[in-house]
Structures
1.
Amino acid sequence: MIKSKNYALLWPLVFAMPVWAGVNSELGVESRYFFEESLFGQDRHQSSLRFEMDYYEAQDGTVYSAKLFARLDREDQERRGYDIREALWTRFGDGWEVKAGVGKVFWGVTESRHLVDIINQSDLAENLDGEDKLGQPLVKLSFEREWGTVDLFWLPYFRERQFPGQESRLRAPLEIAQSNERYESSAEQWRSSFAVRYAGRLDSLEYAVSHFSGVAREPILQPNMMLQLEPYYPVIDQTGLELQYIYEDWLLKFEGISSTGAGERFSAAVFGFEKTQVGIFDSQADLGWLLEYLFDDRKARAPHSFERDIFAGWRYAFNDEDSSEI
């Protein structure tokens, strides 16, 4: 990873724990080392201990599942604690399914940024790439037919975004006062949010249309008199579109949103392709080429750095028993 021109190495070490009664557990040790001094006096070396436990049981059309997560970080107190990533009751029948509890839902097809993925809150204390998510209290009703799948969501409780603490090497330039969060809605965290998504397929084209109405997952960071940044969560309406077209070893991808909230409407999009070379160098490995363009019509007013950018990446999959990849 690269942060402010400082390079870091990450060494993960994972231990598989015994499996019993549908329970899988994992213990991991992670260490980061930075080659240059920090701007705010943090150590070059940062380490942490991670624990995960999964539970799964199915019987007579009902599934019970849970996923617990805990981390103990040596430096950053914001990365010390635990979270219920999932605790779901699922009931399904002929062409329908109901889920209730705490769950994780993923929407999106692109690699660099998931614009339409809005159900779960990002855990930036865990990782700055936004791929790690907090568990979301929800009730989900799904219908599957020949013409596609419809998902309906009720999200009765909102979870604030988690940020790295002052002791983290990957912190923001100003302290984020996470305990001073503010909301546009007077109901604050108990303001219900709702979402609907339709997904279908037409030959080699996969598509999905979604709409979300509720508390924004991405806060607006506003400075206060103490030279801190306070998160402000507006109420938004966001409509999203996902497209993925498969042509031989090419994947053409598109994600776009139109969102209103905090006094303005804006649009953003990510589009590009992924091409996979199978059996590269006469081996069992695959090499994927990725290229995407990111657009946000707010330009300099966007709360992120991806308003006019090109993303390029490579994925080398060894296709071994451990699913190793670079």
2.
Amino acid sequence: MTSEFQAPLRLLHTESSLGWGGQEIRILTEAAGMIKRGFQVQLVCPPEATLFAAAQDQGVPVTSLPIARKNLTGLLALRHHLVTTQPDVIITHSSTDSWLTAIASLLMSHPPPMVRLRHLSTPVHRNIPTHWLYRKASRLIITTGEGIRQRLIDVNGVHPDRTLSIPTGIDLEKFSPGDQHQARVVVGLPLSIPIIGIVATLRDWKGHFHLLEAFAALRDQTAQLVIIGDGPEYDALTQRIIQLAIPAQRILMTGRQENIPDWLRAMDLFVLPSWGHEGVPQALMQAMACGLPVISTPVGGIPELIQHDITGVLTPPKDSPALSRAMDALLADPQRRQQLGEAALLRARHQCSMETMLNKMESALYSVTTSHKLH
């Protein structure tokens, strides 16, 4: 919480991405949390972005700007908005809006400090312009995992004092254990068969194709796989289900859902076999907070959340046979599933709270503004 001696900051989040996933969810939940703490928060994003409508629905102030691409129109529109609104801090989230913000700041006499928030573990280019963006233009780089932060230091030469890891927080009251039977009634799933689930945008690197291959090879042919989310790989995944000859009744593709806690509570096992780009996935934290046993991969920041065979199971990325064996083993061992679920729940409650994230972000943003004034 802000102290009585600190005036609430004016925060501006920029996001050029048009899609929807954990990154956009963090932007909204963090913005809403800061608003509750008394901060003045505004988002800017393209009018066609999913985030624009979602922010309006959730009551988070949002302005549409043409910043989906790096061009003069977006640059001038963003500069005008910055001059008009005069935020204390700008928090950027994707490459395009980060570049537009950095260049717009060069065109201002008194630009606010820029904080670059890195959500994913994708490598950062090691060229001169990117070095400038990360080492000079950004006052602070915040990552969603310590592994991402360390790579920026080791590979990209970012000074340790200019980067900080603040994992995403989730609502631990909303995502909590519940009655499985009741949850299955609510979402309309069968009551007496094993349910394996995944919640993720349908992108290739989330590992859905490997999950389908592993699922097709399961010993327990009564199990059902529930795939929650939408995205660019929907049609390709549908075709892969046909190619693998998985019976239609064993696969449920729900599209995007709002009542995620009920879907999670209905599951016996949560699987996220990502093979690239991950920070610390929110869906994984949500599943653990619901007390589910989880299977994932040692990619990005996932090992910071899952300790193998203690708070979950890690299998090699892109290894469908290993994933199938791990699922077989847990489906056949209810006691082991319970042990892993209880350990996952404890880890989530200790590591993934919304308050922890907001406290750390608040401290970091005040530090940035204080440092900016001294310069």
3.
Amino acid sequence: MRNRVQLLGVLFSSLLVMGGLSAAERWSPERAEKWSATQPWLVGCNYLPSSAVNQLEMWQADTFDPETIDRELGWAEEIGFTSVRVFLHDLVWKQDSEGFFKRVDQFLEIADKHNIGVMMVIFDGVWDPNPKLGTQRAPTPGVHNSGWVQSPGKTILADPQLQDELEPYVTSVVRRYGNDSRIQVWDLFNEPDNGNENSYGSEELKDKDERAEQLVRKSFAWARAAEPMQPLTVGVWVGFDWDQPEKLNLTHRAALELSDVISFHDYNKPEMLLQRINALKTYGRPLLCTEYMARGNGSNFADCLPVLKDNKIGAYCWGLVDGKSQTKQPWSTWQNPILGDPSPWHHDIFRVDGTPYSQSEVSLIRSLTEANEKVETSSRD
């Protein structure tokens, strides 16, 4: 199986050279393991400030909210989180790259103040395929993540020539922060092939897998050309025959073929989570679970976080603070909105005033991260 993946990698490198793209090398498994050994346990969350409905509202000048970010990352620090996964957006960079970088710099300063590193997400294939700058629409009452937008939008994703115009965005971001120790990992594309059947399926590209695969491969080439010191990844999230590349679609195959460290999403019960972990261990690379924790699905902190820690896997739940994204609501609220608190909360840990949704969950998280700190301190002594 590994030989098949390696053969695909050799063929792709040849195509890159013929096409004039950089053919910088994927990290060896040994280099990836050495990197992993230098990191703390990467435990944290996918972070959006509670005052933002989406990535555009997070990063645009008029709505960037450092006070809220500082307060909320303080709560993350208190429960022992060492990392956050944060989504950028190409439109904000295109509108004003200098202002965009100043705000990203400020975010990194705040995160570092709280002893939290960052996984940057460059592109995203989930939810609204038609992003627009400016004032963002208000959340739809009772609906999960009703304002989130894709990056790039479907018009760009559909056109290989327009995709190529994204190269300066990728290379400028990765070059600026490629030697910044506050950045821990580059996640180049979140769920690139997501058809969003539950929400925007009728508006989606019919050939999204093929178009997403093209941009995934270009993104790896562009990012490698910037020579970052951090590893690159694109996560696998559906299909689940992850140890059998011949059964995967084009995008998932590219992600596993090109990633320096393997990342994945799993919102299932711990038994299924462990099956996915064992399938991905066959690649012989460090693993990061960049999305988990959907209480109604049986993916919760009590059962899943110990599995991830015991297997030395980075762990990023979805959500930190209940806010405008409304991700405490389940995915099904796109069809059946819920006004008020669902039972249980789908995602998120804290209410907007900083009180925990579940004190027992917060205590558990803290106990696991405290144990990790003791191990790290002992190893340094």
